Amino acid sequence: MPIDLSVNGRTRRVDDDAETPLLWVLRDTLGLRGTRYGCGIAQCGACTVHVDGQPVRSCTLPVGVVESAAITTIEGVAGPEVEAVRAAWTARDVPQCGFCQSGQVMSAVALLRTIPIPSDADIDLAMSGNLCRCATYNRIRAAIHDAARAGSTPA
Amino acid sequence: MIEAPRTARLALTRRRMILGGALAGGALLVGYGVTHPMAVGGALLSGGGTDPEPSAFGSFIRIAPDGWVTVVNRQQELGQGIHAGLAALIAEELDANWDRVRVVDAHSNFRAYGPQITAGSRSIASNWEPMRIAGAAARAMFVEAAALRWQVPRAQITVRDGVVAHPASRRSAPFAELLADAARRTPPQSPALKQANDYRLIGTDRVRRKDVAPKITGAPIYTQDVAKPGMLVAMVAHSPRFGGRLARFDSTDALKVKGVVDAFAIDTGVAVVAETSWAARRGRDALRIEWDDRAAEMRSTAQIVRDYHDIAAGRTDLSPSDFATKGQDADAPLTGDVAEFTFDFPYLVHAPMEPLDCVASVDGWNVAITSGAHLPTVDQVQAARVALTIPGKVDVEVVPAGGSFGRRGLAASDYVIEAVRIARHTARRPVKLMWTREDEMTGGYYRPMSHHRIAVQVGADGLPARWRLRSVCQPLLPFGSNEQAVEGMGNSPYLASATSVDGKLYSPRFPVPVSFWRSVGHSYTAMMMEHLIDQLARRAGQDPAAYRRTLYRKARAARHLKVLDELCRRADWGCAVDVGFARGLAVHEAMGSVVGQMAEVRLDGNRPIVRRVVAIVDCGIAVSPDQIAAQIEGGIGFGLSAALYGATTLDKGIVQQTNFDTQPMLRLNEMPAVETYILPSTAPPTGVGEPGVPPIAPAVANALLALTGRPTNSLPFLKGPGASNLGPMA
């Protein structure tokens, strides 16, 4: 049975089995390879995408569950929070190896959309599910504060 | 890219001689010859290629007609920012416009680029001379072209931000305008290099990464992201025990999985190839396999630890090697006031965020590989060996690695060989070999576990007078001495003023594979030396910083002394700390750099909470201060993760930690605030990627000692199921 997905605002029909994790449908079927495999058990956050605006781990989410949901990936995520996050990440040279950063950006954007001016405790809660083995954590935290300040200042 | 004219092609040969001379005489071959004999040998064998894009400005610099400078990065970019560091060395001497400099990664090519080895935190040190010479030679060619065109003396010409000028006559031209003329000039044999006080780029925060945009927009830049026409995905079922062999397998069910193309035995297990990653995974899960464990490692960790303790006590047939010997009476028993210490360290996984992967295709004699390779010229040789071809027929496309920490820098090229073996079965279809996280954590090549017994005879002055050191650690390389296992001990300044030193190393061999892990032997020798010195200071009733200062003075360890003094100053050492907190410090030299760290720690139950770390770095000239700070921050996070949680253990030969649930790693909420200070220096640059790792564990252990009075004699600090730190999103 083909499954109709809404990915980055477009409807995409796939014929993967319903239990296939969304991660592999995005990467292998739809060619959206910016969402990464890091653990396969929702422990590292490299595969974070937005489903109806919520950050979720796509590596353990069966694709059949998200039929009719709005899925957004790192390739399609857009808006003022995204621009603020990317500008802050660039200004602070946050990434090292960079492999986890798609997921970090997706989690940070979701946080700022929920809490425009997050506290350190808010950042701990929202970002501790995203591992970074290069330990770019302090720059991530600082960049989120930067992005929040940029978002709260009228352009 | 400009086509090199004939005259310049001739010049190119001479130019290679300049670079070649710098390489052969410099630290590169010497330094790597010690740590990576395979790498150098492999690189030498892999000659036969030609420069794919010959440029009048040498192998490392291309200049496009629009004036953009492309730097060819022969090192592996695995997060450390080397692409920008190398580009800065060239751009500085070339006086290029930094905003119009881009970087491409070199394919494996010994002829064009020399041995491509990213190891030992040596990339800046080993490129320091050759890249600056390359940049300066190219600059001289532009100066000469302008002097000829304008008929003015060369000495009156300036170059700045990619613009060549003759201020006296108010003439100027950007690189683009002079490019054709400059490319016809002969590069000078030994171009003059700038004095450090003339640097405009090196040592400034203008040296920024050039790879942030693709990394925050999800650009498909990693091996995992490679997609080629007709490509298959492969996964391999490995023996659950090290040294186990395949007895028999049944692929009936695996082949029924939709998308699975084939399943077959290879040297390392059973490979399943499929149209998609998920099909390969499901196909592999459906294999039925019997393993032959007759030659396998069957011990549990507790047994190996007991065996190591026996070996260190001399109850063994192994003969040790001497790694540090001093004094006539080195063998005589220690007498009087003797302090004894034992330390046990576990196996550690590298766990880069990108699990191991490699893309390979085999077409007759030709092999094409895409990989985040540290040692592409070694991988070339290893791939040629299993594909029955010659290294010159193997092309390694080097792409950014999603981390490595040493795992992708094995002379054995284990997963590269595995990918090539599989690709030989797939009738020219490219294969992307993917290891799962479980494969990576259970598949070996760990930081070796080790056991150490150290006894110190304390003199009347409270200082160590005689040392007896016994270490047990598997060898990292199949041949040669096992010097990496004890690096950081024999040359410790704490040994310098002793009258006798007796250091012996036992190197047992058994099937658990071990390898280089970020900071290698220093990852635990710093813990031992820095933690025991705090204990000796306490015995002598002295402040740990003051006690170190005395020893550094006696050893004439000027760099250690400066780092320690700056650390005490920046960390307000000796001032009161908040109730419930304690401070510990550690100073250690690794990869040519001296790093000091102070950690501010409290205890939550048995869990150390590290609030703040102050780090002082002496790494010679700082090419990119912001990237050095990033590496120190990252090194502290990496080292703290291992110190808190890192342990790969065996139960009857089976690895018990399979993923981030059973092997926790440091998360954002556990990361201390880090302040990094770089000491000014005029010495050539030394390592940065690894030296930030070793001091953090002893700094924390010393803080815990101050807090509780209890020493730490093994890592990690947190053991067993209670160690979990699962994040709130888990």
UniProtKB/TrEMBL annotation, chain A:
InterPro entries: 2Fe-2S-bd, 2Fe-2S-bd_dom_sf, 2Fe-2S_ferredoxin-like_sf, 2Fe-2S_ferredoxin-type, 2Fe2S_fd_BS, Beta-grasp_dom_sf, Diverse_Oxidoreductases. The keyword Iron applies. This is (2Fe-2S)-binding protein. One of its GO terms (molecular function) is oxidoreductase activity. SUPFAM superfamilies: 2Fe-2S ferredoxin-like, CO dehydrogenase ISP C-domain like. Residues 1-77 form the 2Fe-2S ferredoxin-type domain. Keywords: 2Fe-2S, Iron, Iron-sulfur, Metal-binding, Oxidoreductase.
From TrEMBL, chain B:
GO terms for molecular function: oxidoreductase activity. Residues 217-295 form the Aldehyde oxidase/xanthine dehydrogenase a/b hammerhead domain. InterPro entries: Ald_Oxase/Xan_DH_a/b, AldOxase/xan_DH_MoCoBD1, AldOxase/xan_DH_MoCoBD2, AldOxase/xan_DH_Mopterin-bd_sf, N-heterocyclic_Hydroxylase, OxRdtase_Mopterin-bd_su_IorB, TAT_signal. SMART domains: Ald_Xan_dh_C. PANTHER family: ALDEHYDE DEHYDROGENASE. This is Isoquinoline 1-oxidoreductase. It comes from Sphingomonas spermidinifaciens. The lineage of its organism: Bacteria, Pseudomonadati, Pseudomonadota, Alphaproteobacteria, Sphingomonadales.
